[in-house]
Write a structure and sequence with these properties.
By secondary structure, this protein is mostly helical. It has a domain at about 1-15 and about 50-115. About 55% of the residues lie in helices and about 0% in strands. It contains four helices and no strands. It has helices spanning about 1-15, 55-65, 70-90, 95-110. The longest helix is centred in the C-terminal third of the chain and has 19 residues, at about 70-90. It is elongated, with a radius of gyration of 16 Å. The two termini are about 30 Å apart. About 25% of the residues are buried.
């Protein structure tokens, strides 16, 4: 169950990262300098010291990846990492479920790193 939640959160974050564009029949709207999409600020993502090492490794990897991105992709990565971190806080510190969730998240982001140019 925990692995499924971690995978779902990562996939949610990566959903906005696809290079595929669906045709809509009309040209995409242009973005003027006054209507630039807002960027989710990159807050320091820090796992509590009592969390498994894989948790902080995941957060470090995602932070580096988000810094290399721009626009919607950077926002999706940041939002996904923040959601993942929030989900971890709902788990009991020191539990096997938390360790598994962090490990699964780290493996998933590592597997997607090349696709994200990270």
């Amino acid at each position: 169950m925990v692995k499924a939640i971690a995978a779902l959160l990562l996939l949610t974050a990566l959903a906005g990262c696809s290079d595929e564009v669906e045709p809509t029949g009309s040209p995409p709207p242009t973005v003027s300098s006054r209507t630039q999409p807002s960027v989710i600020p990159l807050v320091t993502l820090q796992a509590p010291q009592s969390f498994p090492k894989a948790c902080q490794q995941y957060l470090d990897r995602v932070t580096i990846c988000a810094q290399r991105q721009t626009g919607a992709m950077a926002n999706a990565i940041r939002a996904g990492a923040q959601q993942t971190q929030a989900a971890w806080t709902q788990m009991e510190t020191g539990s096997p479920e938390l360790a598994g969730a962090c490990s699964t998240s780290l493996k998933a982001v590592t597997a997607q790193a090349a696709a994200l140019n990270c």
